[in-house]
């Protein structure tokens, strides 16, 4: 039975974020490394995921499950990898720019490294096949809790207008203890298609 944090003991998302972020940061370097390697292996053996060509990921911070081992595997398979970049303007949404390991990244206003869009022309989310998404918590119904800024939800809001699966597939990437009993859902929340943890892959709504 998977471990999860019982949400009924926490009254709001702020408490959930605080508890899970603290647990992430408490992991040893070896535990972080082992979890990342296991999650990468679960991705690579999944035929449905590995056939994706344009894949967006993220650079880990704050104890997030680190996709670096996965990035190295995907580069060897000649996948095109992308990182999120803040979309200029005031709508708090994201574009995605191609990522090359030797590129010099720049920091955005939140101190997060991202490609220089003057060198790597950004593309919209719907141009991707798959987004490997960071998260603070997830539920077994595919609910996702981020850091609270709503950037991914705004970027992917168009998916809520379609009943059938459309690009890109949205796959959470997290430590298994980030699983919670349930998450309240708002009308603007965009659910995950699946999640990968060190324990394996779980599909929520992956259809063709």
Number of strands: 12
The assigned structural class equals alpha/beta
- What is the tally of helical segments? 5
Over the alpha carbons, how many angstroms does the gyration radius reach? Answer: 16 Å
Q: Helices and strands, in N-to-C order?
A: HHHEHEEEEEEEHEEEE
Helix content: 10-25%
Description of the molecule:
With 208 residues, this protein is an alpha/beta fold. Helix content is 23%, strand content 21%. The protein has helices at residues 13-26, 29-44, 47-50, 68-76, 151-155; strands at 54-56, 80-86, 94-98, 106-107, 113-114, 130-133, 137-139, 144-145, 169-173, 179-180, 194-197, 200-203. The strands form three sheets. It has a seven-stranded mixed beta sheet with strand order 3-2-1-6-9-11-12. Strands 8-7-10 form a three-stranded mixed beta sheet, covered by helices on one side. A two-stranded antiparallel ribbon has the order 4-5. α2 (29-44) packs parallel to α4 (68-76). The longest helix is centred in the first third of the chain and has 16 residues, at 29-44. The chain starts with 12 loop residues before the first helix and ends in a 5-residue tail after the last strand. Residues 1-10 have low confidence and may be disordered.
Fold topology:
Blueprint lengths: L12 H14 L2 H16 L2 H4 L3 E3 L11 H9 L3 E7 L7 E5 L7 E2 L5 E2 L15 E4 L3 E3 L4 E2 L5 H5 L13 E5 L5 E2 L13 E4 L2 E4 L5
Parallel strand pairs: 1-2, 1-6, 6-9, 7-10, 9-11
Antiparallel strand pairs: 2-3, 4-5, 7-8, 11-12
